[in-house]
Design brief:
TIM Barrel
């Protein structure tokens, strides 16, 4: 069975993220290693790291992955923002090393009017620099929906950035973003065409993680709005195709579906989404 799970909170400590994943029946979780909405960086708490490692020992949560801060914009033409983004990325990679997390997912960024090509050059240059400073951890560029001046909504462009950046840069494929960017994932032919483009652009061997999210927006809408599995414009069949694709077999997958606002509502929603994905993938129902 592939590693399957969801994004979980680190509130109360990194070890609580493992417990949350276990309670949801996850075999994989994705976390933020720090506040995703602040530039300020607090030193990593060694006691927290030790509790995290103890929590992972013998846990059914086999895969742990990280998502970078939403503030990171390596494509920015603003020197201050670019510098803060580079510093934040470096810190997050160091945290991943300390927490034994193999990869960090980030969005390519926004060129803010300076042009797609120039923005892509900035991203590749920043990745070359920071990965030369921090060994071991992979950066995975997530495909985007194509809103505004965002980079990476065409898989070809992700491949160009990866080739220019050099080693240890992979891909995170988000189903909602791909669909909103115009990739038809609801048919075998459409899914195959998208994966063929990714293979030509970067190589499927560099696809390290999947984000399984339905889409509130339609095909090619360029709207980045996640929806619960089977309740959006993608629908159940798209996820059945993805989960049964031989080319995607064994690639870990996490959901980032809406959490709701009521007490316990997020957990109930995550459980329902994960159960449906297991059903669509042909796995036996999870006891949780």
């Amino acid at each position: 069975m592939r590693e399957l799970g969801c994004h979980v909170s680190i509130a109360g400590g990194y070890d609580r993220a493992v417990a949350r994943g276990e309670n949801l029946g996850c075999t994989a979780v994705q976390i933020f290693t720090r506040s995703q909405l602040q530039w300020g960086i607090r030193p990593l708490d060694r006691d927290a790291v030790d509790r995290w490692r103890r929590a992972r020992e013998g846990s059914p949560v086999r895969g742990v992955y990280a998502h970078g801060s939403y503030l990171i914009n390596l494509a920015s033409p603003d020197e201050r923002v670019a510098g803060l983004s580079l510093r934040t990325l470096r810190d997050e990679l160091l945290r991943c090393r300390a927490l034994d997390i193999p990869l960090l997912v980030i969005h390519p960024g926004f060129h803010l009017g300076s042009g797609q090509d120039r923005g892509a050059e900035r991203v590749a240059g920043a990745l070359r620099l920071v990965l030369g400073e921090v060994p071991g951890v992979w950066v995975c560029l997530e495909n985007t929906a194509g809103q505004g001046t965002g980079l990476g909504f065409r898989l070809q462009q992700l491949g160009e950035i990866i080739r220019a950046a050099g080693g240890r840069v992979g891909v995170c494929l988000d189903t909602c973003h791909a669909f909103a960017a115009g990739y038809e994932l609801r048919t075998p032919r459409g899914l195959s065409a998208a994966l063929d483009e990714l293979d030509r652009a970067a190589g499927l061997h560099l696809l390290k993680i999947l984000h399984l999210n339905d889409s509130r927006g339609g095909l090619g809408s360029r709207v980045d709005r996640h929806q619960h599995i089977g309740r959006g414009a993608l629908g159940r069949e798209a996820f059945r195709l993805v989960l049964h694709s031989g080319e995607l077999d064994g690639i870990p997958a996490v959901i980032e579906t809406p959490k709701g606002k009521g007490k316990g509502e997020g957990d109930r929603m995550d459980l329902a989404n994960l159960r449906l994905l297991r059903e669509l993938g042909g796995e036996r129902p999870c006891a949780s």
